[in-house]
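note to self — DONT lose this again. spent like an hour looking for the file last time. sequence + predicted structure for the chain T wanted, 278 res
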Amino acid sequence: MNILIAPNSMKGSLDCRAVAEAVAEGFRQASPVFNLRLVPLADGGDFTGPLLREALGAREFREVVADPLGRPVEAVYGIAGVTAVIEMAEASGLRLLSEEERHPAAATSFGTGQLIRAALDRGCRKILLGLGGSASIDGGMGLLAALGFTFHDAAGELLNPLPASLYRVERITPPPGFSAETEFILLADVTNPLLGEQGAAAIFGPQKGATPAMISGLEEGLAHWISLLESQCGKSLRDLPGMGAAGGVAAGLVAYYGAQVVSGADYIFDLVNLDASI
């Protein structure tokens, strides 16, 4: 009997490879003649980074960057040719915070932007970014700040790239010599829009530590932020499927770099040629 074992990770428990090995061991104990094929999977969430690095034969690099609260943390990413493989949870993940530290109104995606900056400095021109497991709801403001963007209010004052600043931003300034040539593919594990009852703040805020009052403030900030980005790029962004993933971190990358938000599961299934295994 041919048996295909192709699990996703179990959040807070085992990664996809450990799940596959555990299931395989059960079959081995039942019969020595089973023909087992293990194809661990991910969907843009947990274990996406390691799985992509292995599938692409990427070389592993480590950088000390900012965690969601701005503290130093060592994060891993991979490079295969001119393609970088980055998992947002490595630098900006909920797993880096204790229950008491979860506070999305103060959490930032800045560290993920630092990883992207490091990859660009190493010559990468394509970024595969897994969006799952993030601790922040900052619309990607922190990430853009790490790439050199600055933000000002109506009076021209420089703003800190934190969620509390989202509703105050009136001008976004790209870095000197800005070029949108980098290709971004954003692997989302959800299809939620940015705003509303199914949006980033309402649906994912509570698991990141947001109170009802905090959710309302984040929703207001994201609505102002996305309106500004839409005016900058001249197209509607707020209802794109997956824009609500990872606290709306895709917003700035789509607006300024033309990033593609894709189904992480579909992308990875194709990469590992799951259909052929089936």
